[in-house]
From TrEMBL:
GO process terms (BP): chromosome segregation; meiotic spindle assembly checkpoint signaling; mitotic spindle assembly checkpoint signaling; protein localization to kinetochore
Record lineage: Eukaryota, Metazoa, Chordata, Craniata, Vertebrata
Keywords tagged on the record: ATP-binding, Coiled coil, Kinase, Nucleotide-binding, Serine/threonine-protein kinase, Transferase
Stretches for region Disordered: 1-34
InterPro entries in alphabetical order: TPR-like_helical_dom_sf
Coiled-coil regions, chain positions: 161-188
Gene Ontology molecular functions: ATP binding; protein serine/threonine kinase activity; protein serine/threonine/tyrosine kinase activity
Name of the protein: TTK protein kinase
SUPFAM superfamilies per UniProt: TPR-like
An example Gene Ontology CC term for this record: kinetochore
Length: 227
């Protein structure tokens, strides 16, 4: 009985330590030393959420199963808190959706495809969303599907198109990475902003470009557990 009680106490202490660590990381994340709860109640915008999540991820190295589960729980919580109809055009929201799918691919590759599809349906204007999905398919040995996703992204008017063109070139060269780190750096923020401004000024309403994009979207989001 004493041994069982000691084990229970140890588990509680470990859980408390984990929560305190996460709270400390959260507190360091915002200008107002806000916790995750304060972000939800006060700001609850994609930028603050992404800042928090990246900080959590940075402090979760090396990544083990327990930390992966906690990260996935935080990402799913962010997605539940941010409506896609409001933030589908927001780059930080798109990055949250993509990173969530990538983490799910580490945990459960068979389930990850649904989350990449969700990111693509909700944030179709961003080239990196399509490329991330295509990279996943390539990692699963689905060359044809990967190529199809990249070409459909061009049909959607996803930007910057230069990013998609490089990814298609690398795919055709049978490279394992659709975008190298160097290529990502070369695609500067200013290039992306210019491409986006050009896209909107020349094409007007985005919804008119959705015909070739499988843009049915998701009427209901998959439910997430908060891990």
């Amino acid at each position: 009985v004493t041994k069982h009680h000691d084990m229970q106490k140890k588990n509680k202490d470990e859980d408390l330590t984990d929560e305190l660590s996460l709270s400390k990381i959260s507190a360091d994340t915002t200008d107002n030393s806000g916790t995750e709860h304060q972000i939800m109640m006060m700001a609850n915008n994609p930028e603050d959420w992404l800042n928090l999540l990246l900080k959590l991820e940075k402090n979760s190295v090396p990544l083990n199963d327990a930390l992966l589960n906690k990260l996935i729980g935080r990402y799913s919580q962010a997605i539940e808190s941010l409506p896609p109809d409001k933030y589908g055009q927001n780059e930080s929201f798109a990055r949250i959706q993509v990173r969530f799918a990538e983490l799910k691919a580490i945990q459960e590759p068979d389930d990850a495809r649904d989350y990449f599809q969700m990111a693509r349906a909700n944030c179709k204007k961003f080239a990196f969303v399509h490329i991330s999905f295509a990279q996943f398919e390539l990692s699963q040995g689905n060359f044809k599907k990967s190529k199809q996703l990249l070409h459909k992204a061009i049909g959607c008017g996803a930007v910057p198109i230069e990013m998609l063109e490089i990814a298609i070139k690398n795919l055709n060269l049978q490279k394992k990475e659709l975008l190298s780190e160097e290529e990502k750096k070369n695609l500067t923020v200013s290039t992306i902003i210019t491409a986006q401004e050009s896209f909107f000024s020349s094409h007007g309403h985005l919804q008119n470009r959705n015909i070739n994009c499988d843009s049915r979207g998701l009427a209901t989001k998959p439910r997430f557990s908060y891990g």
